[in-house]
Amino acid sequence: MSQPRTTWWWENASPDEQRYLQGLRLRKFLREAVVPFSPYYGELFRQRGIDWRDFQSIDDLDLLPLTSKADLVNPRDFILQPDSSVLRKRGSIIASALLHGTGATKEQLEREWRPVLMTSTTGRAAAPVPFFYTQHDLDRLAMGGRRMMEIAQSDPAFRHVNAFPFAPHLAFWQGHYASLGFNTFMISTGGGKALGTEGNIRLIDRVDPDALIAMPTFLYHLLQQAAAGGSRWQNLKRIVLGGEKVPEGMRQKIVVLCEQLGSPGVSVLSTYAFTEAKMAWTECRVGHDKNPTGFHLYPDLGFIEIVDPQTGRRVADGMPGEIVFTPLDSRGTVVLRYRTGDVTDGGIVYERCPACGRTCPRITGNVSRLTDRHQLNIDKLKGTLVDFSELEHLLDDTREIGAWQIELRKRNDDPLECDEVIVHAVPMNGLSGDALRELVMRRFREKAEFSPNNVLLHDWDEMRQLQGVGRELKEQKIVDHRPTSSPK
Fold this sequence. Notes:
This protein is α/β, with parallel strands linked by helices.
């Protein structure tokens, strides 16, 4: 497949150069694609009296309101719908027709503007929203995938296994197009729902891959079951995780399992993505004794700003806030200044990466979702705001827990009763049940200022059933079994 030429400045330009060139790209993007061909944004510009000429720099994005998922009630209005009469008048199109003929020019326009692939949001919190790609977008998906491979220091000679589920979701397709963009071998298993955990293990036994790409929870169970079954995966060099956050404790547990399988020194890398961006970003490799340096962004393809979740105003570099995304070279479905609902406690930084030396901007710190924060009515603590992202880190960082699930209930299943928090856990390192219960209770009190109502112990098979390993698109680590009539 043809690939767009990688712009020289995405990984080495200074922050000032990046901002200047992003401003040029934004202006061109608005002029040639968004304003004339987006039903939603074309009308927005008209209503607000905004002109694409008003955007002199990337900072002028403040002229536009933030877009949220609530605005996507009519997804078709966000698909670029080119007017052939407008395109025919453009000088570049006239020149192409004269140089290459009308047939070749028509094919070029169809590759740029005609949707050929659809992904969608998962629909876990709301109805799924479709996002459409043209071949132009797929070329950039492959470009971004190639960059991810380069940042992770992969090698075209590596054998990769993509264990993301077969689904119309970005994670699987980013892995697939990364292999095409990097011109490397990759076999896709479809995750647990396609081959099952045992089928994945048998395939990996045969392929003997250099790299595994998967959801963290599924991969963790996969490695644990493979190690327990005596598999020897002695060629592993990279583990690339996506679709869920990856606490440090989860990384360390995966490293230990890889050592048991015969692959010491594996690099475990986390990725960050969301459907609306139509691309993903990864960390670079760091030493095992060093902290990750953040998700490396592509300033030529999109602009990420961090805003105060309450006010929507942009915060200073390095400050925490909500991640907002604007594409700079997209077709198909386009959303500008999109509120992801994801918050980062490290903000965005522009200084040179201390690990790989690139100057591309990086999202640093822990990323979590605003929806991970639940209002709970726990005994006398009315309306307690509990950050379940913090609880995930707490449990994953506990070495004595092999796997876990948090269950929310109502006492006696009565909608008017207090909420209950139940922790299901698989004990490790020979810890007794009573000792593990006391450890979990103490850590909750230290971090969350409350204790779970109970800690229930399970073996690995029972936990796989609870989490839905091999059945669910994403394994269930936090489940809400409160009656639906109760307020959430």
